[in-house]
Design goal:
The chain is an alpha/beta fold. The chain has one domain: 3-Layer(aba) Sandwich (UDP-N-acetylmuramoyl-L-alanine:D-glutamate ligase), CATH 3.40.1190. Helices cover 29% and strands 25% of the residues. Bound molecules: adenosine-5'-triphosphate and magnesium ion. Adenosine-5'-triphosphate binds next to helix 6 and helix 7.
Length: 297
Amino acid sequence: MDPAVASVGNINIDIAFYTQECPEKDSEAEADGFMVSHGGSAANFAVGISRLGIDCGIVGCVGSDQFGKDALEALRAEGVRTTWIFECEMETGAVGTIVEAKGGTRTMIAWRGANRMILEAVRRSPLGGSRHIHVSNVPREVLLEVMARRGDASVSFDPGGSSRVYTPEDLAGIDFLMLNESELEGILRGRMGIKDLLPSVGRVVLKQGARGATLYERGGILRCEPFRAEAVDTTGAGDAFDAGFIAALLYGEGLGEALKWGSAAAALKIRKKGARAGLPRLEELCKFLDMEKPYRN
Ligand SMILES: Nc1ncnc2c1ncn2[C@@H]1O[C@H](COP(=O)(O)OP(=O)(O)OP(=O)(O)O)[C@@H](O)[C@H]1O
Ligand SMILES: [Mg+2]
């Protein structure tokens, strides 16, 4: 049987340098710490939702190098299904990040590598047998292919760095558009407002960093204040949020509760270094939600 959720998008190796301040162009700085860890939005989302007890498979690509083998092993160890992952004769994608001590702000450079074959991976996968498909940061033709083959699955889309290639028309039929403010601006390009997206997109979930999150739907707006969290590393906060939000919906929770699950998963994530280390298990998330209430600044 197909997994309940298919996560479509990038699988990467993350190479992070932790520093007080990002060095100026043409200068050098000493890092306080260094870490190589597993990343890629689709893979982080898959691990996040799998830790919350939901069966998930990835549609994505890894290279034939050691990084690719390690990436597959790390996903399997988390219970994520890897049968739809396309192993290509090239390098696994890599992202170099400079994480600044103050607020965990990040500066990133991405090498797509094997991720460039994502359309082929999507074409080879069955897709429509899952209850839900989550798509993150993919080229336009990949999203369109997923939408054409979604079957009865609901679809969430987090455009990430790819937002500027999308027009509002491309997003027709998406159930949940999950993105931050600059990505939203990348799509709207000052030509229209968020409400203009709503006839064709079911709901827009706006992630606002330390200011929390807001859900827009035709009937109105739902707000979720952030949970108190000391930001050690915000890498993957958005993926953690997406995983918590979609998990809640698949467990039958309402939209307000889903916003809380997303915010809580992200708050727990940012307390630890790396995109995945802080991703909570279901028991941890439920305990956190019982004890902590979103707070107002
Ligand atoms: N400093 C913080 N304190 C508390 N919660 C936070 C903080 N930063 C992020 N969050 C939570 O994480 C969610 C997602 O983070 P953010 O808005 O940065 O998404 P994003 O820009 O998509 O992130 P990413 O760059 O990881 O893709 C926020 O909506 C919020 O709930
Ligand atoms: Mg994001």
